[in-house]
Design goal:
GO molecular function: hydrolase activity, hydrolyzing O-glycosyl compounds
Distance between the termini: 54 Å
Domain Glycosyl hydrolases family 39 N-terminal catalytic: 33-532
Strand content: 15-25%
Active site: 211 (proton donor)
Oligomer: single chain
Number of helices: 13
Pfam families: Glyco_hydro_39 (PF01229)
CATH class: Alpha Beta
Structural class: alpha/beta
Protein name: Xylan 1,4-beta-xylosidase
CATH topology: TIM Barrel
Helix content: 25-40%
């Protein structure tokens, strides 16, 4: 029952920046010129955005979780991946904040392993039935295998508002028996191959644990984690030699811990096999921003996140044997705790989160190119929290089955083509400047353009600022070159007045028990609706489109 007072504080915090950002009259629009040359490709544009995840695995089988998974799978069927913690925890399968369980492994009175895949199967079934595939995290430690000190509680008691260190418990300890741990990974993979087929399971990602370089998720040593990793990977590969395996999903760039891990998998003696090195098909680290609450409004910390991305890329690029390995930023977010309250996190329900996402992903693509690394994915650690108050302020993609504005930016990403085009904006903050200091002076009105195999040109434009305060619209002139004859133009928008269920909820009085008509209104308001613009008149393959873009707005134009 204590969740509701905490949630009331979160909701109040969410509304404060909204009031602040609309208390001042809007200034006159400022002009921005954007140039796109459809005849000058830059190179491939990988769909790095297609990865998502959450602490709570059991939500995937619940009503709102199933609905949201369906929406994620529709973004890119069969090529969207989901990562979840707690998949091997002991328990009855009841979801809770930063917790989940499957009871996959127990032992009989003689210490013999007992495997039960009922709950893990239901979770993976829920993914696959909706076009989503597993980024399968092998963890955490089943109670029967945990080496935690006697008397240590197994499940943590954390809830929103509590200190983060209270997520510790017996689940984050090394195993008593590494051979049994490796056998668990083998038996799970073997079962998955038998149930889903070799061709399916070979498309998955397999990684071990989460953030082992910090005390919250791992109480063992560096060497014990390397051993844990080796035994699990050996078990997976024994069941499926071609399985795609990697890790270690460290917090941040990983510091000395990551350096030691990279050296171990490249050059060390494998604890499980005795061979040199550990099979590694991809490498993973995390990057988080750092929002704050300043003068009554949220100020985002996009520079902190981008600096973390850059540091992670540089660390991997510096290891010759590993520099060409695919990289997944296994958690890629504006801050570090999806379930944590606080006024600094009051960006989540509205357009601050959606515009931040558009602005940050462009720079992540740029940093990968600059560091010459093989970026495969940037995973958004946001899903949904079942049976919580409406718009409670958690970092999520939907609330009670209603999509938030940020999810529509991923829908925009899904419409981008596979080839990036030459594009520039005189309103875009340069890469070096945003990595160093964020967007604290002039706004960032940026552009990303692409072409699909059918020739359609997609132009994504955003108007972002770190500070959630009122600001003038951008009067955008989009100059297009390298086109054919006149064609159809379709526009999608995400801003205060478009594809924004949060704005609709506030307009109806912020009901915590909406009726079916109010629910239908919010669901309709959440949908990103295409608008057909006048046909683009071209001369010599060139054309021009003008439009207004409000602060924290994002738009996508598709030219056919």
């Amino acid at each position: 029952m204590r969740a509701f007072p905490v949630t009331a504080v979160i909701i109040a915090a969410m509304l404060l920046p909204f009031a602040a950002s609309h208390a001042q009259p809007a200034a006159a629009p400022f002009q921005v010129n954007i140039d796109v040359d459809a005849g000058k490709p830059v190179g491939p544009l990988k769909p790095i955005w297609r990865f998502f995840g959450a602490d709570e695995p059991n939500y995937a089988t619940m009503k709102d979780g199933r609905k949201l998974l369906q929406h994620l799978g529709e973004l890119r069927p069969g090529d969207v991946y989901f990562r979840a913690h707690n998949l091997l925890n002991t328990g009855d399968g009841t979801g809770a904040f930063k917790w989940g369980s499957t009871n996959a492994y127990t032992e009989d009175k003689n210490g013999k392993p007992v495997y039960d895949w009922t709950v893990t199967d239901a979770i993976i079934d829920s993914y696959l039935q909706r076009g989503v595939r597993p980024y399968l995290q092998i963890g955490f430690m089943p109670e029967a295998l945990s080496s935690a000190k006697p008397g240590t509680p197994y499940q943590h008691t954390w809830r929103p508002g509590f200190s983060y260190n209270l997520i510790e418990g017996g689940w984050n300890a090394p195993p008593k028996d590494y051979a049994k741990w490796g056998e668990l990974a083998y038996q799970w993979t073997k079962h998955n191959v038998e149930r889903y087929g070799r061709d399916e399971v070979r498309t998955w990602y397999f990684e071990v644990w989460n953030e082992p370089n910090g005390p919250s998720y791992w109480t063992g040593t560096q060497a014990e984690f390397n051993k844990l990793h080796d035994y699990a990977i050996a078990g997976v590969r024994r069941a499926l030699p071609e399985a795609r395996v990697g890790g270690p999903d460290v917090a941040g760039a990983g510091g000395k811990f990551m350096d030691a891990f990279l050296d171990h998998v490249a050059n060390g003696t494998n604890y499980a096999t005795g061979e040199t090195g550990t099979p590694t098909d991809f490498l993973a680290f995390h990057a988080k921003g750092n929002p704050s609450f300043v003068d009554g409004h949220v100020r985002m910390g996009i520079a902190t996140q981008l600096q973390g991305v850059d540091a992670g890329f540089r660390k991997i690029a510096a290891v010759p044997k590993l520099k060409d390995k695919p990289i997944v930023i296994g958690e890629n977010d504006p801050e570090g705790c999806a379930a944590c309250p606080g006024p600094q996190n009051a960006y989540r329900n509205g357009t601050m989160y959606s515009s931040y996402t558009a602005a940050s992903y462009k720079r992540i693509w740029q940093l990968a190119d600059r560091n010459q690394v093989n970026l495969d994915g940037a995973l958004t650690w946001a899903f949904t929290f079942e049976d919580q108050p409406w718009f409670a302020g958690y970092r999520q993609l939907a609330t009670n089955g209603i999509d938030l504005p940020v999810l529509n930016v991923f829908r925009m990403f899904s419409k981008l083509g596979a080839t990036q085009l030459t594009a520039s904006s005189d309103g875009e903050v340069p890469l070096d400047d945003i990595v160093k200091g964020g967007v604290r002076n002039r706004a960032d009105v940026g552009v990303l353009a692409s072409r699909a195999s059918d020739g359609k040109v997609a132009v994504l434009v955003w108007h972002y600022h770190d500070d959630d305060v009122a600001g003038p619209e951008a009067a955008v002139t989009l100059n297009l070159r390298g086109l054919g004859k006149a064609g159809k133009v379709t526009q999608w928008r995400v801003d205060e007045a478009h594809a924004n269920a949060f704005a609709a909820w506030k307009a109806m009085g912020s009901p915590q028990s909406p009726n079916e008509k109010q629910y239908a209104r919010m669901e309709a308001a959440s949908v990103m609706k295409p608008v057909a613009l006048p046909a683009l008149a071209t001369r010599g393959g060139s054309g021009r489109i003008t439009f207004a873009l409000p602060r924290q707005g994002v738009t996508l134009l598709l030219v056919e």
